[in-house]
């Protein structure tokens, strides 16, 4: 109840991310329920497997309950053991490290590049020891790590390359699909990703010798998949493993998204490009840095971020955008600075580029269904911050035309 003389104004907030329906997702869920196929590896799971294998030229794709699960499976398949070391960027999600830490290995963090915010391939080799077992490049924002150099280093030192392509489905490096270049690849279908089933992931394999064991690991260490194919007369516990299968409901929703993968990709790229053009003048004025996409990379518009001049500016900027009705959010706290990272022997100042850029980075709303009107509000919120700060007041025709 509003008391006399008191009026409340509610500002609609444009969210950072919003789930979307792109096609037949709900119809396929109803179909799965009607057919009584709700457990893992039903018809829709198989459809997703086929789609992923054919689109990305992968010998075998297996849906998992998350990209975390796919990374854990990859760690087992790579025979990661206690005392091993695994090289990765500190500017990534905890799952990239946890998958290997759970096997008893130690994550060895590496500095990132200033341009793409990916692992700095020029610093990897200095981190290799006799205990190093794998390299895990994470393709930040759907822009490829320098995979030629990484694969060459791995081959010389007999290391496994596991691609954390959680951000990178439908993106390419020198014409090759990210997730298909390393020895093992992983995707995410979390709600914040380009193609979503709420939760979900996939393991991508190109070595035929890993396929049978991957099925066993995924089925709680049993040869259940072989049993259902009639290859054994009963199934039993034959290896380590866990329950990595998603339900058929998750697969049904995901298949509805994959059917429209190109349309989703095109819509996201269009929004990304509008942002990129709209913020050109404030970059020229020296107020922000826009994302850098190397010419040999094809990104997938997983996110649009800006790099501001300091942590203090970013904090103020996020508050300003909220007052203007637009979300703006930061991203990873570098793993080496986290409580767990410090317990592993890391310290502040260890990776100055990672620490500086993580403090300055802010992400803007980007999702299918983000209207032209809402895109204009986001752009106006960004530009008004710098205009109010008297950093630039150059009018931007892109905002008016969104």
Termini gap: 38 Å
Arithmetic mean of pLDDT: 93
Q: Tell me which CATH architecture of the largest domain applies here.
A: 3-Layer(aba) Sandwich
CATH superfamily of the largest domain: Type I PLP-dependent aspartate aminotransferase-like (Major domain)
Supply the number of helical segments: 15
Number of domains: 2
Number of strands: 12
Helix content: 25-40%
Strand order of the largest sheet: 1-9-8-5-4-2-3
Structural class: alpha/beta
**In CATH's first tier, which class of the largest domain applies?**
Alpha Beta
Helix and strand sequence: HHEHEHEEHEEEEEHHHHHEEHHHEHH
CATH topology of the largest domain: Aspartate Aminotransferase, domain 2
Shape: globular
Main beta sheet strand tally, sense and closure: 7 strands, mixed
Q: Any idea what the radius of gyration is?
A: 23 Å
Uncertain runs are: 1-9, 390-401
Outline the secondary-structure elements.
Blueprint: H1 25-34, H2 43-56, E1 60-64, H3 67-77, E2 85-89, H4 94-101, E3 106-110, E4 132-136, H5 147-157, E5 160-164, E6 172-173, E7 176-177, E8 184-188, E9 201-205, H6 208-218, H7 224-228, H8 248-258, H9 261-278, H10 280-284, E10 297-298, E11 304-307, H11 311-323, H12 339-343, H13 352-360, E12 361-364, H14 372-388, H15 397-401
Parallel strand pairs: 2-3, 2-4, 4-5, 5-8
Antiparallel strand pairs: 1-9, 6-7, 6-10, 8-9, 11-12
